[in-house]
Amino acid sequence: MTELTGLADDRALLGRTSTAERVSDILRSRIAEGFFPPGTRLSEDSIGGALGVSRNTLREAFRLLTHERLLVHELNRGVFVRVLTVEDVEDIYRTRGLVECAVVRGLGEPPYAVDGLAEAVADGQRAAREGDWKGVSTANIHFHRELVALAGSARTDELMRSVFAELRLAFHVVDDPRRLHEPYLARNREILQTLQAGDRDGAEHLLAGYLDDSLKGLVGVYGRRVADGGQGIG
Prior knowledge:
The chain is mainly alpha-helical. 66% of the residues lie in helices and 4% in strands. It has helices at 11-14, 20-32, 44-51, 55-67, 86-105, 115-129, 133-149, 154-171, 177-181, 183-196, 200-226, and strands spanning 41-42, 71-74, 78-81. Strands 1-3-2 form a 3-stranded antiparallel sheet. A hairpin with a 3-residue loop joins β2 (71-74) and β3 (78-81). α2 (20-32) crosses α4 and α5 packs antiparallel against α11 (200-226).
């Protein structure tokens, strides 16, 4: 399976104290990066062999990722990377709006620690110059994770880690990532510059409009891809 390419190299991340949590971290990253696209059946034998872990450990990792809504277990068929519905995408954006806008609203007095945001903006611009639209998508998620991190809340970071991982399931189905992600390079930079200027209210207004437009654009292209029962997925 081409999806398993390089997975054996991740054995080193498990260390001597291999746990289901570490396995789930590895698989979550691989799913987010698109190595296991939505609709892919995950083989216990192949993945367990590549990582050198027991069947029980792998099943527990699958259970954890199923709880995070990244995987789904189908009776008598196995475990698959989840294919989101349009309703799932809409719910993800409702959550993003509630959390991300609240983070910006609650920032307090400037100056704000936006170095992480600036790094993500630079990464996105560099990836765009290289025509690496998967890299642009990754930088965009990095931008929003850094935005959430401004709250200084480990619980919020953990919640949104799962939300952003789910969101990337939708991104991997889109067949024109440039059209989807390119418009938001400038908008990320605008939000960064507004926060650098200390304008919290202005940044929240920009972010709310950004999320509304992003939802409409993603639902438009994603809905067409899944309209025929997920044709072309997996």
